[in-house]
Amino acid sequence: MIKEKREADSLRDPKRRRICFLVALVCLTIILASPALASAESLRRREIQCTVEGAYKSAIIEGEVVDIDTGGPVAGAVVSAGIDSGLKLIEAVTDANGHFLIGIENTGDHDYDIQVSAVGYDPARVTGSIRSGEQKHLTIKVKYNPFDLRLSDSYGTLSRGYTAYSYSGRRSVPFTAQRIVPVLDRLGNPVYDTVVEKVLAGYTWEERVTLYRTEYYTMPTTILVPRYRTETYLSGWKMVKLGWFSFPVPVFSTRTVFDGYTTRIVLQTFTRQVPYEDWVLKSSPTKPDFLILGSLPSDRIRNVKEVYDFIIKKVPRTQVETYTAYRIYDYGGEYYSYLPWSSIGTTVIVTMKNGYSGGVFLSAASGGDLELRLGSTVLRGSTTMTTTLTMTPRQAATYSIAVKAFDS
What we know:
Immunoglobulin-like, 4-stranded antiparallel beta sheet, CarboxyPept-like_regulatory, elongated, mainly beta, Carboxypeptidase regulatory-like domain-containing protein
């Protein structure tokens, strides 16, 4: 395979160039390198020479066909000129220097539509007009594009299996700790200390408040006093017997009769509540709101004091003891043993175009730790050709793969 490639390289013109196709599997880009130009004799193209009879030509279109990338001449390119919307067709073939010449015999001004085709090149087209007797020079640039290169899969991922193992255990770790223990006397009894504990019992303060006192006052008052009189009236008759005779005797009674009103002035006593302000001693077991809010109105509150209770207690005496303790740890988990990486494959597809029928040499490379295998490095013989590309990684990473294609 290497020998064939060297022989193919030796047949190429030094001015010829390559276009390589770069195809990345993950971030796949394609770089196309153009193959070498074939000689005009090997193109097997029908050459049509334009012969001009007579000494007079109305106009001449001449120029050269060059490669747009290298600037070199393209030999053997067919230049077809349609004159006056296709009323006349003139063809010419470029020479080894890429030069062509087209003569228009009819007098007058003409429009032209020139189309250029060459093996392995994209077609090019130039339009314009030419006047009678004018000689116009054209430089027509064409793009060498003999085949397309692509992958059936431009992106892929790989994974590999693993075997999981579990483990568990327990261990004790010593450490120095401290604790509080009671102090004992020689008989083993706890030793107590007398402690006077000061406990906040509440708060006292003097607060200016509004009070009310009862006042007594007298006022002369005129009152109506009813007046009564006593009168005698006949209330009935009674029979009085005197001897053999009986005769009626009137019975009189007395009664009190309302005789109108008389006025009298008396002194009457009344009460009323009179407000006044004074300082009053107040207390609270909790912190009053004016201390919590931090606003103490001096005109309303004064002499704020804390009230404490003193409690005498016997508290056991203690001391700090240092000792060694142990922490118990239970541990466990899993560890994994990974299996070898699997392989992934894709298809390299080469499609001939622009009349190219030669062979194609392939190569693949990666910037990372990735093993690449091409099924075939030389393709030839049909319009569309395929081969396989197998990739096997050695570690987990993102890989960019370059596939290069060269003409023969």
